[in-house]
Write a structure and sequence with these properties.
The structure is a single chain. With about 350 residues, this protein is an alpha+beta fold. Helix content is about 20%, strand content about 25%.
């Protein structure tokens, strides 16, 4: 494994900006001491030919026009729960301000592992709803396979008078495209009433060391201010987001592991936060038989975010040219505001609410 310094030397162009937007990965100055982050960065450099590793030195270049999507991956032992325990570069006031501005202007962020603790610091959610399921220990050896479940509320299949509207099939979300999927009650997951995507394990019954670094949402721990059929809907309704993954074995609505925060009236960009421990890049022992699923999930996520950013970049160009743009209250651009609707109007770089009568 190469250390981070050569990786940075070959991939980071601190002053050069491509003529077309690309994807980037933001790293701290001490990431070379974090094997999981190094492994992720090396894969990123090998996968995205025009991708760039970014540091604090590149803050001036971090704009939606230069980068369609940016990945922040923080994964190391003993880090401690809470934003203020993140490595210094990630909680630097200038970094925080720049990433907040980036998403507000239409940039897309992928925050994985402990980086999910940045969502509330970017003011996308309230601090009271920060991730509460956390683990940063050394972990241990296990023989099972860790998966992600995107078929949420599968417990309804056991209920005689089940409410089908409380089953949320997110398995067709673009981040899962092309991944190996185990079907419900198949040989691998006989006890699961839902399909699952395997991410970490040998698949042979042999042990593999996992660090068990989760950083996710315990949906039963919060007090909600909106209506919803369950805690999953309450999170989604309160923050204009979609839960697209949970722990592989979860059949109810207690854990949000992968969440897509969609554009709204304040943030033109999308954030996907993935705090699943199963997304581990460099197991200490044995080979991860499902590493290709992890790389596919990550590549899909970055490409999906880059595509959602394209319209945001076009919008920015139009706004700078003096045109007027309209958005629904949920942040979706529309060419034809409908009578009787409330909209966000962007004109000359300024936003205001307008009611179309």
């Amino acid at each position: 494994m190469k250390i981070l310094t050569p990786v940075l030397a070959t991939l980071v162009c601190a002053t050069a900006v491509s003529a077309s937007p690309k994807v980037g990965m933001f790293l701290s100055s001490d990431s070379s001491n974090a094997p999981q982050e190094v492994a992720a960065a090396q894969w990123f450099g090998d996968t995205f030919s025009d991708g760039e590793l970014l540091t604090k030195a590149d803050l001036d270049n971090i704009t939606p026009e230069n980068y369609k999507a940016i990945w922040v991956h923080i994964d190391r032992c003993g880090i401690g729960m809470g934003y203020n325990n993140l490595p210094e570069d990630y909680r630097d006031s200038e970094v925080k301000a720049k990433l907040t501005e980036y998403v507000k202007n239409g940039g897309a962020l992928y925050l994985s592992k402990f980086a999910t603790q940045m969502v509330h610091e970017l003011d996308r959610i309230d601090a009271a709803y920060a991730p509460g399921i956390f683990g940063d220990g050394d972990g241990g050896v296990g023989t099972d396979v860790w998966c992600v479940n995107a078929y949420l509320g599968s417990m309804q299949t056991y209920i005689a008078d089940a409410d089908p509207t409380q089953i949320y099939d997110r398995t067709t979300h673009p981040i899962y495209a092309g991944m190996e999927k185990w079907e419900a009650h198949s040989e691998q997951i006989a006890d699961y009433p839902h399909p699952a995507f395997p991410l970490l394990g040998t698949g042979t019954g042999e042990g593999i060391h996992r660090e068990d670094h989760n950083c996710m949402w315990d949906l039963n721990a919060y007090t909600w201010s909106v209506e919803g059929k369950n805690t999953l809907e309450q999170l989604e309704n309160q923050y204009n987001c979609t839960v697209i993954g949970t722990w592989g074995h979860v059949q109810d609505y207690c854990v949000a592991g992968i969440v897509e925060f969609k554009p709204d009236s304040n943030y033109k960009g999308t954030i996907i936060a993935n705090g699943l421990a199963a997304c581990e890049w460099a197991p200490r022992t044995a080979n991860n038989a499902y590493h290709s699923n992890l790389t596919k999930l990550t590549q899909n996520t970055l490409e999906y975010l880059a595509n959602t950013n394209t319209s945001a970049v076009d919008t920015l160009a139009a706004e700078k040219s003096g045109e007027t743009a309209y958005y629904t209250i949920d942040g979706v651009k529309t060419a034809n505001p409908v009578a009787g609707g409330l909209y966000i109007m962007i004109r000359d770089g300024k936003a205001s609410k307008v009611l179309v009568k």
